[in-house]
Amino acid sequence: MEMKEQILTSAQRLVQQRGFNGFSYADVAEEVGIRKASLHHHFATKTDLGLALIERYSLILSNELARISGLSVPADEKLRAYISIYHYTLEADRVCMGGMLASDALTLDTTILPSLKHFFAINTDWLTELLAEGKAQQLFTLASTAANHARLLVSALQGALMMARATGDRDAFEQTASLLISNLTRKG
After folding, report:
1. What is the Cα–Cα distance from 85 to 58, expressed in whole angstroms?
2. Alpha carbons 131 and 150: distance in angstroms, whole number
3. What is residue 187's three-state secondary structure?
4. Cα three-residue angle 19-67-176, rounded to 5 degrees
5. Mind listing the pLDDT tens digit of every residue in the chain (188 residues)?
6. Which pairs from 8-16 meet CB under 8 Å and 24+ separation?
């Protein structure tokens, strides 16, 4: 793995575990075995590193959503596959990087915020399409617009992930995810 990728991998893990404000260039440099000056060669500022992280994370998410979209399964199974992304993050003892950055939003350099907003748009836009697909397949019952439900799902899953991590209660995450699905699939 080339050094730039090693830096991004290390920094992503640190952000997902500690938050953007909870790690330093010294932490990353020590973990990947380079001097801080070398790290600055790849990412001149922490803001540059933050932008690269959210763009990389958004690309990974987009690729995973495209994979899920391509599955030959009904919309409710695609929704479960989407929720499994959060399960994986929780099992890795991390929080979604988008959620961690959002929790630091008031202290982030403002140049990072448009990319963070785009990350959440990727989620909500994809879910909006999926929910409309599920409604058309008569799998989902929506009490509001698909876009409103999409925002609710992202918000609830992000919050459930943070609460599970903070409390150590992973079952609470599972219960929240199950409740979200059952509320969508409930008829009438």
Report:
1. 13
2. 7
3. coil
4. 50
5. 699 999 999 999 999 999 999 999 999 999 999 999 999 999 999 999 999 999 999 999 999 999 999 999 999 999 999 999 999 999 999 999 999 999 999 999 999 999 999 999 999 999 999 999 999 999 999 999 999 999 999 999 999 999 999 999 999 999 999 999 999 997 65
6. 8/49, 8/52, 8/53, 8/56, 11/49, 11/53, 12/53, 12/56, 12/57, 12/97, 13/94, 15/53, 15/97, 15/100, 15/101, 16/89, 16/92, 16/94, 16/95, 16/96, 16/97, 16/100
Q: Which residues of 119-146 are buried (b: 16+ CB within 10 A; e: fewer)?
A: bbebbbebbbbbbbbbbeeebbeeeeeb
Alpha-carbon distance 75 to 73, whole Å?
Answer: 7
Q: What is the DSSP string of 122-170?
A: HHHHHHHHHHHHHHHTT----SS-HHHHHHHHHHHHHHHHHHHHHH--H
Apex CA 139: angle with CA 145 and CA 59, to 5°?
Answer: 65
pTM tops 0.85? yes
